[in-house]
Amino acid sequence: MSEKLEKLVEELSTLSVLEAADLVKKLEEKWGVSAAAPVAMAAMPVGAAAAEPVEEKTEFDVVIKDAGAKKIDVIKVIRQLTSLGLGEAKTMAETAGSKVLTGVGKDAANEAKKKLEEAGATVALE
């Protein structure tokens, strides 16, 4: 019987959190019981297992929210960070939500954000 239980535990360990919650609902309906306390304890390891694959974000987009009062300085920084021409950089600086850099590493994104903020822009990393 323990081998049978071990197989069942292995099968249940592969369920996602949503699948485990659905299983609980179905068992409660079938057996006519409430498994509130035991399920909370049983769901914790499943939730922990599901949380393990979550990794730290490695790619960021540098987005201008507002160019601020020193638009010319912001345009200069945009041109330093990208290969855009003056007109394109100006348009980017004037358009809230423009992505100056996309898919860059954390260090590069933070450095670009720092430069843009020093020039007077409001910047977000997404």
In short:
With 126 residues, the protein is α+β, with helices and mostly antiparallel strands. It contains 6 helices and 3 strands, in the order αααβααβαβ. α2 (17-31) runs antiparallel to α3, α4 crosses α5 and α4 (71-81) packs antiparallel against α6 (106-118).
What does this structure look like?
The chain is an alpha+beta fold and 126 residues long. The protein folds into two domains: 50 residues, Single alpha-helices involved in coiled-coils or other helix-helix interfaces (Up-down Bundle), CATH 1.20.5; 66 residues, Ribosomal protein L7/L12, C-terminal domain/Adaptor protein ClpS (Ribosomal Protein L30, Chain: A). Helices cover 60% and strands 14% of the residues. The protein contains six helices and three strands. Strands 2-1-3 form a three-stranded antiparallel sheet, with helices on one face. The chain is elongated, with a radius of gyration of 25 Å. The chain starts with a helix and ends with a strand. About 5% of the residues have low confidence.
